């Protein structure tokens, strides 16, 4: 997303702190921005409060949504939005739509266009204690916000601040302001302009200043929620399977842990089969297709799925064996 051509001489109006106190209101289940409904049918256990602790001419007040349930629902439709969601363990990407049902799972923020007020509103799920929150799609225009700890032993039924809401006539200002005040509220992160470039960058740039550095996937320790939390999953090949995998530790996976410098170049290096990558992809696709047949059969009402289950376990075993 490019910056405005001349942000120092912007034609956009910037709301002052005193003006913002009356911009948002939550009445009768409707979250409104300058009297224009943004979200409707909001449950009664949701409240809106202004965060004034740090309010001064340079810092604007917080508007936090508080809930007393880890899953809450609200609704919107015919409201254009831009969002970022996590679609794999290590990747996030943008998504657009105009209804809560258009969202993707684990959406990290939503930016709304509100033409009636000539402004943009951003809602960012935030961290509270040991819980992180994210938006999920609902049915019939509903959007869900879920707070999760990642552990069955860490539970809660209420949260003081689970999302931050910000408004500006300049969409760039709206995003920058939102993360500036979230940083003040959480006191756990730094903005991009506050971060220094890691020395590791010198191993990649060769004297040339990089704009982006992408470290490809494949080195993380990941698994699935239904499996042993300490067990590394080897056979993450097909994108649809990778999507639902999660990090179970921050260390590199087993194949990287076992690697020693120069191992692949020595006299005792392991043999390389140029056909193996293609064989792995073919077997993974076969497994993915069988799992789809299993799900389709279950949705159609078939109760005896044993032949699919047997075939799935067989293919998983074969795929793990190919990895070694």
Protein described:
The protein is an alpha+beta fold and 324 residues long. The protein has 2 domains: 12-190, no CATH class; 217-323, no CATH class. The protein is built from 7 helices and 15 strands. A 7-stranded antiparallel β-sheet has the order 4-5-13-10-9-7-8, with helices on one face. A hairpin with a 4-residue loop joins strand 11 and strand 12 (142-148). Helix 6 (276-299) runs antiparallel to helix 7 (306-323). The longest helix is centred in the C-terminal third of the chain and has 24 residues, at 276-299. It is globular and about 70 Å long. Mean pLDDT is 76; it is low at 1-18 and 53-64. It holds the Pfam family Raffinose_syn. Keywords: Carbohydrate metabolism. InterPro entries: Glycosyl_hydrolases_36.
């Amino acid at each position: 997303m490019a910056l405005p051509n001349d942000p120092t001489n912007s034609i956009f109006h910037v709301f002052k702190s005193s003006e913002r106190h009356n911009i948002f209101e939550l009445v009768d289940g409707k979250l409104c921005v300058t009297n224009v409904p943004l979200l409707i049918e909001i449950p009664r256990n949701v409240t809106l409060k202004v965060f004034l602790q740090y309010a001064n001419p340079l810092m604007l007040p917080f508007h936090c949504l508080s809930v007393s349930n880890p899953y809450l629902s609200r609704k919107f439709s015919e409201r254009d939005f831009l969002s970022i969601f996590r679609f794999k363990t290590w990747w996030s990407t943008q998504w657009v739509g105009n209804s809560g049902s258009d969202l993707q799972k684990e959406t990290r923020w939503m930016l709304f266009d509100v033409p009636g007020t000539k402004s943009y509103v951003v809602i960012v799920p935030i961290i509270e204690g040991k819980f992180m929150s994210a938006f999920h799609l609902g049915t019939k225009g509903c959007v869900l916000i879920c707070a999760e700890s990642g552990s069955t032993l860490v539970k809660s039924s209420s949260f003081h601040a689970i999302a931050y809401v910000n408004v500006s006539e300049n969409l760039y200002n709206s995003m920058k302001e939102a993360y500036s005040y979230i940083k003040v509220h959480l006191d756990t992160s730094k903005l991009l302009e506050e971060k220094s470039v890691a020395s590791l960058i010198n191993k990649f740039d060769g004297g040339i200043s990089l704009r982006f550095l992408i470290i490809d996937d494949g080195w993380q320790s990941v698994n699935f929620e239904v499996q042993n939390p300490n067990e590394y999953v080897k056979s993450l090949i097909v994108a649809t399977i990778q999507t639902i995998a999660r990090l179970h530790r921050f260390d590199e996976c087993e194949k990287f842990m076992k690697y020693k410098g120069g191992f692949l170049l020595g006299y005792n290096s392991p043999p390389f089969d140029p056909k193996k990558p293609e064989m792995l992809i073919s077997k993974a696709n076969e497994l993915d297709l069988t799992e789809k047949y299993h799900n389709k059969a279950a949705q159609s009402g078939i109760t005896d799925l044993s032949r699919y289950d047997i075939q799935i376990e067989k293919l998983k075993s074969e795929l793990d064996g190919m990895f070694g």
